[in-house]
Predict the 3D structure of the following.
Amino acid sequence: MVAVNEVEASSLVVRDVKKSFPAPDDPHSRRQVLDGISFSLAAGELVSLIGPSGCGKSTLLRLIAGLDSADSGNLLIGSNPITAPNAERGLVFQDPNLFPWLTVRRNIQAGLVARGVLREKKNEVDEFIRLVGLEVFANVYPHHLSGGMAQRAALARALINHPKILLLDEPLGALDAFTRMRMQDEVLRLWQARLTTMLLVTHDIDEAIYMSDRIMIMSARPGRIERTIAVDLARPRQRDSADFLRLRSDILNYLHFAGKS
Amino acid sequence: MEAQEDLVPTAVVEPPSVLRWRTILAVPVAAALALALHLLIAKRELPLETHSYRLFFIEIIGVSIVLALLRRFSPALRRWMASMWPIFTAAIVIVCVWDVITLGLRLLPLPYFPGPSAVLRSLINDRALLLDSTWHSLGLLLSGYTLGVIAGLISGICIGWSSPIRYWGMPILKVVGPVPATAWIPLALVLSPSAIVSSAALIALAVWFPVTMLTSSGISNTRASYLDVARTLGAGRWYLIFRVAIPAALPNIFIGLFMGLGASFLTLVVAESVGVKSGLGWYVSWAQGWAEYGKVFAALIIMAAFFSTIMTILFKARDRVLVWQKGVIKW
């Protein structure tokens, strides 16, 4: 159970959430994708969600974003239930999904236009373009951008609304290893600069350890949170420190991926 | 809204302006040959009959020589000549072959296949009526096309966006749409007192179907993730429709506009030749009635130029609107 004072300090509370979809092979039965998910995020926390493919990580993120609704259970921001998508919950996908018909600048200001506040907040657009280092590319169309730059633009587009919580659905999954590590630092920098609560879905154990305050490990079919691990390593973290590697082998062992020793 | 900001700073790569001597000379030489052949063939004809044709080729020779001299001063001119001169040469050769077949060897039956000199004479002699006909055709075409595009965009967006409208609208579209607009002519002429009004409505109908079809499929195939992203950015319904779905559907919409334009040309010409008493379609059937095939061909040439100009304008509009697609897909 979530205590009352914990609710107040949390930016997101997920309580016993269940979600099923029609089974693809048999339209009469339903497949339980999420089976009683409960957790909460403190304001300003960065938490990772790892687990095998098909364990319902993305479904959970869509529920929190308000793009789908849960079969049962509660999803709360502060004390308000989540009913529909809202600018206070930003979402960044693996594909940057920049609108190809808008320049980088216009993509980044899309949230301001959508909420009808562009006029008042026009000056923030440059600030966010600077924040992600895309000044030179502000007026080009997205197909001129590399994968990393496009994802930075997508992050700026999500952050310009000052979301209470930023949901990241494998945002770095499509990038090469080097760009990926650079972008991890970039996301951490944005997190520290904006003090945004972040929920990061990832496949990458190293990424989860390197970035997050806590790691939630999910199991598949039905999706449950099996274990939550606090990452008590000082920041900035060393990818090759003994504590880092110990935590890594703990998680690998837990997931039975450590291999024969 | 700050259109200046949206200019793409991509460098325009100019093709090398290689302009060979043989390219420069091809046009005046071809024109001179065509003229010489014509003079040889047309000795039997009255000089007045072929006067403007000869003048035409003399002008081509003159202008091409002047341009050959001016090319040093303008790289743009050199590029244009390098790309266009082979085409112009081919056109002159084709006209020359036409001249030889008709006037020279008399291989094709008269009066149905007049030579180019007779067509040019008709074009010049009847220019006032041809211009007036073109003007009337343009008016009818534009009013019908505009009406059809507006109706098509509205119904396409509604059908593409809303499932109830799709449920009721799609069957109508599927049953009415494939019937060629020209098939309604007998009914349309009865229904409306004015042939012009009914023709405009028929053109609009012909345009409406492809525009609706392509617009609705473009809207309903908008990538779901674009809509999801927009919703998490705080977008309401209007933003989703006008700032996401419609821009995403624009490539499709333009295909519909092109198909509609083709359909509108067809409907225009048919409507003008059966009901409306003006325009290029009317002119063709009127000239045919008098067996003045020189005028028929003259009107066909004007029609080709007229329709291809309008098509080019639409292409230019698309290039401008869909500039963001450059580099994404090959046109």
